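Need residues for this backbone.
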């Protein structure tokens, strides 16, 4: 995993120090949380998203992408499996729209029930290299180790579902807890040494890591291959909504633009054109102010080059660089799926 060694909010806060050498605590209550239950729930979500949900066993999880029929992105989600029950963490504001969208594909004979858990459950994220020792201090001796593995634990007497992973390419854990007792868990994590991370700093961390977000990098203008979400796509599972388009783009290496990270000397507005030799080759989608400058995400046409290629953003000259969270690798039949970063 890539640590946040380059992260500098320019404030030298306790949360910045925690990201580097301790544990930062993120309140994810704004995120959406869905539950799918019933004998057909795994196959149903398998058929509606990009990853191999049907293959998940209880205690396992994965990331997957909701796409429409032309493979344009709706949202990036994390799935936790118990067999005939799935929990799905989605982006803020996406739970309602996704339930409405999924409900269109449930047929009378399907044994699937959709529930919005966004109000009844809260999601906390622990980010930093000392997450495991902190949870040990909370009385949890055995922790899930592989990515997206999860198990039931208790913190301060409160039932918690604990998952390995942070939603970024950084070490840590996510915790699902009932909203009515979330404050008790929060206080226990704080007492054990976690340091709260403000929402604005979490957004900066998202951009530094390169995780795409709805309304910015995940829109109906872009597909998940362009967004660098190859890690959340199965190329061997067969048909699903948008599968034909994704398979064709992969087979013929037809991705025409790619999401890049772009360090800048000063912030620019979202929507600023990215040019090369006077011609527009892309557009800025997210920007975060950093100490000494800014860092941006933006889609750039593949013909504009690879990592290290020079572009212009407004009156600034910048170079494209890969983001830690993103992956781009064409799948070849007979090979494993693109490696996880």
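Answer:
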């Amino acid at each position: 995993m890539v640590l946040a060694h380059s992260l500098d909010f320019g404030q030298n806060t306790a949360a910045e120090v925690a990201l580097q050498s301790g544990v930062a605590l993120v309140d994810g209550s704004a995120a959406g949380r869905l539950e799918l239950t019933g004998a057909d729930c795994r196959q149903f979500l398998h058929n509606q998203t990009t990853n191999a949900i049907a293959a998940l066993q209880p205690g396992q999880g994965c990331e997957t992408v909701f796409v429409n029929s032309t493979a344009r992105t709706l949202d990036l989600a994390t799935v936790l499996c118990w067999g005939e029950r799935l929990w799905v963490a989605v982006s803020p504001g996406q739970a309602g729209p996704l339930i409405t969208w999924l409900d269109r594909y449930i047929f009378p004979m399907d044994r699937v029930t959709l529930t919005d858990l966004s109000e009844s459950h809260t999601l906390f994220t622990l980010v930093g290299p000392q997450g495991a020792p902190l949870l040990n201090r909370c009385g949890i001796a055995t922790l899930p180790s592989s990515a997206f593995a999860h198990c039931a634990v208790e913190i301060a007497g409160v039932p918690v579902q604990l998952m390995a992973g942070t939603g970024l390419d950084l070490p840590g854990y996510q915790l699902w807890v009932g909203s009515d007792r979330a404050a008790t868990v929060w206080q226990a994590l704080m007492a054990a040494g976690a340091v709260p991370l403000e929402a604005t700093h979490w957004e900066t961390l998202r951009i530094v890591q390169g995780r795409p977000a709805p309304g910015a990098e995940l829109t109906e203008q872009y597909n998940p291959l362009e967004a660098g979400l190859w890690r959340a796509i199965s190329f061997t599972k067969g048909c699903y909504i948008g599968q034909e388009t994704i398979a064709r783009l992969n087979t013929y290496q037809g991705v025409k633009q790619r999401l890049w990270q772009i360090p800048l000397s000063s912030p620019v507005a979202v929507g600023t054109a990215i040019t090369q030799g006077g011609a527009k080759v892309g557009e800025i989608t997210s920007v975060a102010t950093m100490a000494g400058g800014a860092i941006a995400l933006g889609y750039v046409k593949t013909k504009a080059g690879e990592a290290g290629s020079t572009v212009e953003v407004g009156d600034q000259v910048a170079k494209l660089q890969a983001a830690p969270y993103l992956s781009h690798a064409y799948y070849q039949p007979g090979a494993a799926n693109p490696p996880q970063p």
